[in-house]
UniProtKB/TrEMBL annotation:
<comment type="pathway">
    <text>Cofactor biosynthesis; thiamine diphosphate biosynthesis; thiamine phosphate from 4-amino-2-methyl-5-diphosphomethylpyrimidine and 4-methyl-5-(2-phosphoethyl)-thiazole: step 1/1.</text>
</comment>
<protein>
    <recommendedName>
        <fullName>Thiamine-phosphate synthase</fullName>
        <ecNumber>2.5.1.3</ecNumber>
    </recommendedName>
</protein>
<feature type="binding site">
    <location>
        <begin position="398"/>
        <end position="402"/>
    </location>
    <ligand>
        <name>4-amino-2-methyl-5-(diphosphooxymethyl)pyrimidine</name>
    </ligand>
</feature>
<feature type="binding site">
    <location>
        <begin position="495"/>
        <end position="497"/>
    </location>
    <ligand>
        <name>2-[(2R,5Z)-2-carboxy-4-methylthiazol-5(2H)-ylidene]ethyl phosphate</name>
    </ligand>
</feature>
<keyword id="KW-0479">Metal-binding</keyword>
<feature type="binding site">
    <location>
        <position position="469"/>
    </location>
    <ligand>
        <name>4-amino-2-methyl-5-(diphosphooxymethyl)pyrimidine</name>
    </ligand>
</feature>
<keyword id="KW-0460">Magnesium</keyword>
<keyword id="KW-0067">ATP-binding</keyword>
<feature type="binding site">
    <location>
        <position position="528"/>
    </location>
    <ligand>
        <name>2-[(2R,5Z)-2-carboxy-4-methylthiazol-5(2H)-ylidene]ethyl phosphate</name>
    </ligand>
</feature>
<keyword id="KW-0808">Transferase</keyword>
<feature type="binding site">
    <location>
        <position position="498"/>
    </location>
    <ligand>
        <name>4-amino-2-methyl-5-(diphosphooxymethyl)pyrimidine</name>
    </ligand>
</feature>
<keyword id="KW-0547">Nucleotide-binding</keyword>
<comment type="similarity">
    <text>Belongs to the thiamine-phosphate synthase family.</text>
</comment>
<dbReference type="InterPro" id="IPR004399">
    <property type="entry name" value="HMP/HMP-P_kinase_dom"/>
</dbReference>
<dbReference type="InterPro" id="IPR022998">
    <property type="entry name" value="ThiamineP_synth_TenI"/>
</dbReference>
<comment type="function">
    <text>Condenses 4-methyl-5-(beta-hydroxyethyl)thiazole monophosphate (THZ-P) and 2-methyl-4-amino-5-hydroxymethyl pyrimidine pyrophosphate (HMP-PP) to form thiamine monophosphate (TMP).</text>
</comment>
<dbReference type="InterPro" id="IPR013749">
    <property type="entry name" value="PM/HMP-P_kinase-1"/>
</dbReference>
């Protein structure tokens, strides 16, 4: 398995990482440039027209390279003409010098010859640009072959995309396109999963195989997509080299013209705004889902979705199931979900999808809810400090012991739990869930990498609270599927306390996460938070904050706790 790059613990390098993570915003000062290399749809529902509207709606500056002009309405495609090679190359080269892309989305390509020219341009010119600037440009390819009215859009019905091998970040075929690409019928979702994996290997890229165009044949209530990925930078190792089933409520509408174009251009725009691939996919799916619910029909054929800006309604986001992935599944543990979620979304899994999810276990009993606010939540690594903070009045504290070789690990946990009971405070134990259960701790705090290996049913059955870490939209959704007692959002600022696989998230991303999850779970921000940052963090609307150094490295940790708690309450 390829190791993700680990960001350094020196905070100046991490600050530099923060700087290269602009968030989509509507001000002209910081709009990221995204290109759409695609065809014109004169009907305005799909192609370049859909791409530019989407990219702009998500706060990016869109540029276009038109490959094809189609005379198209919502009911027919009457003429398709590819642009000349000279015009294609002139657009690409003219843009590259002045408006270089952060991310490129590729849609309709007129012919096999044009397809190979674009691949060649990426191989030569874009590669040279990336070498010179040291900036990696993600490329998302939507292998468009048919219009939604069923008419062919390219000269050949099935194009061969093999010359894009190694050039793409993500390929986004629907089930019809996937069948053409692998030259096999795909009678069910399982065949679709195998084809997606085959294509991911063949083109050396991630694949999002969309099941939406299967209508009710797979599952009348839910639309299932398969996401297959290899190594993905800045993402948890557990979520790399993995396959996921992404499930959304099926929106009952025929107004689906241009949804594929919109999804792939939304993925491109969201990546250009500094989000990792996994996040771009789930946010783009929510964007399309929300848009379809508000779709309209301007002609007599299929209508189009409405663009409603950055999504923030949790029910529009897909749920995520990790699929067993032969030799590459990171763990052979269990994945958990609330019983309610399994009952609503996955009752049909066995009937319609003969996939093998990594063993799915249901959590029937809820984790103990947090009463009142967590406030300022210190995380400490010894019981002397824990006792001092309890004496100073902390109501919530976490014992985070990382030295597994220490002989007194169990005794430390037992003592921390006893101290918590003595002070009637909530003591959370990090990582060591078996010992936390054994000694009757108030709660446990677990990271994403613990989620497949810890026995979450045993934790719930022990009447304990559960706190979960997250570092992205994708991880937030995975964590929310367990209905934990609180969700931690990290790391917001650079930290020297631990080495992280992800980048510091920054305040803009924190605000986005808060608008998605606020009210569903108590939200705790962590990572690099100190006195100077309390007000900015509070302004995002996050409920509580967890700190290590701001308390443990203060001259008087007890005084620091009291002062910071008061400032947080007043901020
Ligand atoms: C409140 C809070 N948030 C996040 C963490 C990090 O937990 P985890 O991801 O398990 O990483 P380690 O702490 O084990 O390094 C936390 N401990 N507390
Ligand atoms: C333990 C921990 N977990 C994080 C996460 O993002 O999950 S950040 C972090 C360290 C926070 O330490 P400090 O307050 O000293 O920056
Ligand atoms: Mg942990």
């Amino acid at each position: 398995m390829v190791k993700a790059h680990l960001w350094p613990t020196d905070t100046r390098s991490q600050e530099a990482c923060l700087d290269r993570v602009p968030i989509a915003c509507k001000s002209t000062a910081c709009q990221s440039i995204v290109w759409s290399i695609a065809g014109s749809d004169s009907g305005g529902g799909a192609g370049i027209q859909a791409d530019l509207a989407t990219m702009q709606d998500l706060g990016c500056h869109p540029c276009s390279v038109i490959t094809t002009i189609t005379a198209q309405s919502s009911v027919e495609v009457s003429l398709v003409e590819g642009v000349s090679n000279a015009m294609l190359l002139a657009q690409l080269n003219t843009l590259l010098t002045d408006l270089p892309p952060k991310v490129i989305k590729i849609g309709l390509l007129a012919s096999q010859e044009q397809l190979e020219r674009v691949a060649n341009w990426l191989t030569v010119q874009l590669a040279e640009h990336q070498r010179q600037t040291q900036i990696r440009v993600a490329v998302i390819l939507d292998p468009v072959m048919l219009a939604s009215c069923g008419d062919a859009l390219n000269a050949q019905k099935a194009l061969n995309f093999d010359c894009f091998k190694g050039l793409l970040t993500l390929l986004t075929p629907n089930a019809t396109e996937l069948a053409l690409l692998v030259e096999q019928p795909l009678p069910n979702a399982s065949a679709c999963l195998h084809a997606a994996k085959q294509l991911a290997t063949r083109l050396d890229c991630a694949v999002l195989a969309k099941g939406g165009d299967q209508g009710g044949t797979w599952d009348p209530l839910w639309a299932h997509d398969v996401f297959v990925c290899g190594a993905v930078p800045e993402v948890s190792l557990d979520h790399q080299n993995a396959c996921f089933l992404l499930t959304n409520e099926r929106v009952n509408t025929h107004n689906n013209h241009g949804t594929g174009c919109t999804l792939s251009s939304a993925i491109a725009a969201i990546m250009a705004s500094g989000f990792v691939l996994h996040d771009a996919i789930v946010v783009a799916k929510a964007y399309v889902s929300a848009g379809l619910k508000a779709s309209y029909q301007p002609g007599s054929g299929a209508g189009v979705l409405t663009r409603l800006g950055w999504p923030s309604t949790l029910s529009d986001f897909p749920s995520i199931v990790m699929l067993a992935n032969d030799e590459t599944t990171p763990h052979d543990g269990h994945q958990y979900m609330t019983q309610a979620l399994v009952a609503s979304r996955y009752h049909a899994l066995a009937t319609y999808l003969d996939f093998e999810p990594v063993s799915l276990r249901q959590i029937a009993k809820p984790f103990t809810p947090i009463k009142g606010a967590l406030g300022l939540y210190p995380v400490v690594d010894d019981n002397d400090m824990l006792a001092r903070l309890l004496a100073a009045g902390t109501q919530t504290v976490q014992l985070r012991l990382k030295d597994l070789s220490r002989h007194d690990l169990e005794a430390q946990i037992e003592q921390a739990v006893a101290l918590g009971k003595q002070y009637k405070a909530r003591v959370f134990i990090n990582d060591h869930w078996q010992l936390a259960i054994k000694h009757g701790a108030y709660g446990v705090h677990l990271g994403q990498e613990d989620l497949l290996v810890a026995d979450l049913v045993a934790i719930a059955n022990a009447n304990m609270a559960l706190g979960l870490s997250s570092h992205s939209y994708f991880e937030l959704i995975l964590a929310s599927q367990l209905a934990p007692s609180y969700l931690a959002l990290g790391h917001i600022f650079p930290t020297t306390t631990k080495v992280m696989p992800s980048l510091p998230q920054g305040l803009n991303k924190l605000s986005r996460y808060v608008s998605l999850m606020k009210g569903h779970f108590p939200l705790v921000a962590i990572g690099g938070i100190d006195e100077t940052r309390l007000e900015q963090v509070k302004a995002t609307g996050v409920d509580d904050i967890a700190v290590v150094r701001a308390v443990t490295q203060a001259a008087s940790p007890a005084d620091a706790f009291v002062t910071l708690s008061q400032r947080w309450a007043q901020a």
